[in-house]
Amino acid sequence: MASELIKPKQLRFVVDETATLIKFLRKQFPNKGSNKIKQLIERKLVTVNNETTTYFTQQLQIKQIVAVNEQPKQEDIVFSKIKILFEDESIIVIDKKAGLLSIATQKEIEKTAYSLLSEYVKRKNQRSRIFIVHRLDKQTSGVMIFAKNQDVKIKLQQNWHEMIIERTYSVVVEGFVEQKEGTIISWLKENKMYKMYSVKTPDNDSRKAITHYKVEKQNNEYSLLTIRLETGRKNQIRVHFFDLGFPVVGDVKYGATHNPIKRLGLHAKLIKFMHPVTNKVIRFESPIPSEFLRLVQ
Q1: Are residues 151 and 179 in the same domain?
Q2: How far apart, in whole angstroms, are the C-alpha atoms of residue 59 and residue 20?
Q3: pLDDT the model gives residue 132
Q4: Alpha helix (H) ranges present in the chain?
Q5: 161-193 residue pLDDT tens
Q6: Domain co-membership, 152 together with 214
Q7: Is the predicted pLDDT of residue 151 greater than 50, yes or no?
Q8: Which residues contact 180 (CB under 8 A, 6 or more apart)?
Q9: Phi-psi region for residue 120, left (φ > 0), alpha (ψ -120 to 50) or beta?
Q10: Which of 7, 135, 159, 262 could cross-link 102 (Cys pair, CB 3.0–4.6 Å)?
Q11: How many structural domains does the chain have?
């Protein structure tokens, strides 16, 4: 998503007296040492009249334009894609933007929430690590928990249903949902194409899924729902509202007809859980995305 990218900051200067490039830049950046300025030139971040140069001693002429593209700090890149809501010695809780993978897949190896957080903690201590506890789909935004050591990861994953007190999603679906609140129960299975589907009669391969929902706002085209998960099965919300005939906005895989917000209409709004070390109950919330609210105005 374009809004997630941080572009290099470009500084432009007009040459007012003849000088070498390195001398001119020292004057423009009195707080930068010579080595820092040389690095800018070596990394091809300096142009003269729109031509990249790597010569420190290039002679500049009056009225030439020197531009310096200062690369964004890694910290700026990290925090353009994720917002850290909480951090201590055991866990990090983040608010992830839509369009960012939780962790790399075989098909997609790119910047992920996991890799950004790994880079972030290693800047403080090279031995620090990050561990995935659960995932959100790439086009789903909202609150996620990461562990900072293996023991905490295992404790959260093995005791997930006992430690997670509440998980709430904001979801926008296609259509006017007439029943203003309700509970959906089915057993979910996965086919050979890795697509989940509901069955009414349970068997050894199916897992029970329970979704509670309430309509918050709607018009003739869309409905905004608050959804509370009693279980946390793969694609549970997406399958359940496909079953009802109200597919999640943008979810072509599960029946959506169009994608007006260029993402899934799924947002992990709230998570309330028992801290894996202190045992205190903590709660984190992310605001409903503005594009969801615009659809139901």
Answers
A1: no
A2: 4
A3: 95
A4: 21-28, 34-42, 74-81, 113-124, 150-158, 160-163, 236-244, 290-295
A5: 999 999 999 999 999 999 999 999 999 999 988
A6: no
A7: yes
A8: 214, 215
A9: alpha
A10: 135
A11: 3
What is the rounded average pLDDT of the residues 225-248? 95
Nearest Cα residue to 250 out of 159, 141, 174: 174
Q: How far apart are the first and last CA of the chain?
A: 24
The average pLDDT across 265-280 equals 96
- Domain shared by 252 and 184, yes or no: yes
Do 218 and 242 share a domain, yes or no? yes
pTM of the model: 0.73
Domain boundaries, position 212? 164-297
Identify the pLDDT of residue 272.
96
Answer yes or no: do 121 and 180 share one domain. Answer: no
Name every residue whose Cβ is closer than 8 Å to that of residue 292 and which is 6 or more positions away in sequence: 170, 172, 224, 261, 265, 267
Nearest-5° angle of CA 265, CA 266, CA 271? 155
For residue 235, CA distances in Å to 53, 188, 231, 232, 278 come to 51, 9, 11, 9, 31
Question: What tokens appear for 284 in the block?
Answer: 């984190």
pLDDT at 263: 95
Q: Which pair of structure tokens corresponds to residue 23?
A: 């001398």
